[in-house]
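Write out structure tokens for AP endonuclease, family 2.
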Amino acid sequence: MTVSQSHAPFYNVINPDYPYREEEEEMVRRSIIASSELGAGIVVIHGGSRPYRPDYRKNKQENIEYFKPHLEFAAKYGVKLAIENLFDLNDSEKRVRVPRYLADPEDLIDLVDTLHQSYDNVGIVWDFGHANLMHWNQPECLEMMGDRLIATHVQDNYGVIDDHLLPFLGTVEWEPIMKTLKKINYQGVFAYETHKMTDRLPDPMIDAMMRYAYELGEYLLTLAD
């Protein structure tokens, strides 16, 4: 079995009041080391965002300061970091939408380009489900990212919550996405992030679901032609 990418633990990395920062950071470092030992050349990682803070320049600078030591650490182990696109949150008590830094692909590209001036082991992982929650035109986003895109999270939803469904079980338009991935010559991994597909499934049905997921992925790849 080949391990192609992994996912670091995540939390709001620029929240100064987060009480378990030291523990989380130790787990992030361990995930980079473990990924290297397993031969996974890419570790997916999340940035952070100050809630209710529209000052995106400050958000960017704080993320840069966070990622610098991690990129240096990852480079020692021959690992790249792929920063993931996020999505805005909903505050049910205040009944407002909470904007988050890195939910906008332009901000993600800007951050990665800035980091890339000093580090060559950084890129973007695009989560199609997260983008669907933001109602982005995903083919346009993929073209903007181009060769910055080094990993994907393949999942679906109905544009309301982060369901992590299999492709075609939500509202993501997969055919134009697949054709655009081919157009930009994406060479990275096509990674399912659909762990909820077996959450409530009886054990005797899990193997059948896994076979279905595999066949669905094979079909999805044909849409690029």
